[in-house]
Predict the 3D structure of the following.
Amino acid sequence: MKREIKWRVLLLAGTAALSLLYILPSLPGFDAFPSWWRRYFPHEKLNLGLDLRGGMHLVLEVQTDKAVENATERLAAEIRRVMEKEKVAFEQVSREGIDRIRIRLKDPAQRQAAEKLLADYRELERPGGTVEEILVAMGSGRSKEVRGLAVSQTLETIRNRVDQFGVAEPHIVPEGERRIVVQLPGIREPERAIKLIGQTALLEFKLLDEEDYERKLSEALQGKVPEGDQVLYQRVLDEKGNVARRVPYLVRKQAMLTGDVLTSARAQVDSEVPGRFQVGLEFDREGARIFSEVTGANVGRRLAIILDDNVYSAPVIQTKIPDGRARITGNFDEKEASLLAIVLRAGALPAPVDIIANLTVGPSLGQDSIEKGIQATILGGLLVILFMAVYYKFSGLIADFALFLNLILMMGALALLRATLTLPGIAGIVLSMGMAVDSNVLMFERIREELRLGKTVRSAIDAGYDKAFWTIWDSHVTTLITALALFLFGTGPIKGFAVTLSMGVTFNLFTALVGTKTVFDWMIRRWEIKRLSI
């Protein structure tokens, strides 16, 4: 018996000491600790949520129609290449609307050959057409799949960008069919974060239409754009970083190369312009092969480097570039070049996103929430401690010890698991404090009944714990099941409440059934108590 009590005491002391070790970095004055402490012991502070720490709350809406348009455009380009390969003559293969493709044949006699090629594309439906034209559309099932993939890919891309941006404990979750909620606690550069998250980052390399370029460009600016071409602009900035003028370019619609073959993008000093930066690019093996072929076949022509329909530069191809390297030059400073490199490394968004809600929570509001939460926790705790001490006397003080231990273990676990404490999380802590007292009330009332029956103190305590065990166990398990459901199906604030509630319930079982019982057993063995203050 004595050995068993000793091990229980060591277990309680060890868990409490470990919890305090993880709580310590979050306490005032920790910055004064010596540097060697941070090398050997935990030094990371408890993560505070957006409502406590301040930061940004964004609600984004993915333009899923644009994702379907892009998928249809790629499908049209693929059909165009297959028909050229199989020698099926056509005048035009173009996208119409969101999800339709119109194929105009040169010779109606080749319609059967074209239909045979299109039979391989099972996702296409046939809404209509004529003898010389075939009209196909993306099926509803495929369209729904593209929309879903656009949202999931956007979610993952934004998460990758935020991770590289260096935000601790971001909260990025889908909401509904097209929306994404992004919470960035402690963010200090909201404008830069919005630019990072919302930039589509579609990188394309397109050749200029240089045959009779000046005349075609002049006509295009008047609305007569040649088929297969488009007008894009380069923004020329002044010394203050404002757009001084926009230079038009007439480029081919078909991209020779896109950013999905990038393996690396990094900011580097522009050797030609002192004080300016550029973004160096490296392609994968397939991208390097395509880039080599494009530059080799078009020496002397200009190749526009385009990001989100903005021309960054249009250099003349001087020679074949076989090593798969390129660069984006512009009026960049170091921050702008680094941000662009992050966006390109993390990948392009599959569809544009609209920011439909942008809430910035200031640190003063977060500090106020912390103070109110701490005040509520302290007040609630003091009232509970006072009630237990008055109603259950010395046994109530033992229950208060278990309550205090429960709080220490909970905060230590939050710090250890790098969980985020939110205002609803504080509410979960307060609720678990009430449940901790409830467990002790059940056991103490049982002990009182056993003492009234004339049992000894030791027998009454043992019987009280044994008879109350399953009642306490059932109530805690059902609460854990509820907390699990809240965590699985709830949003961010609800999840925070569920986490602290489940932790509090778990540690309450330990402190109530092991902690207080150990104190009683130790007292009885040491002093052989004949009368219990309860």
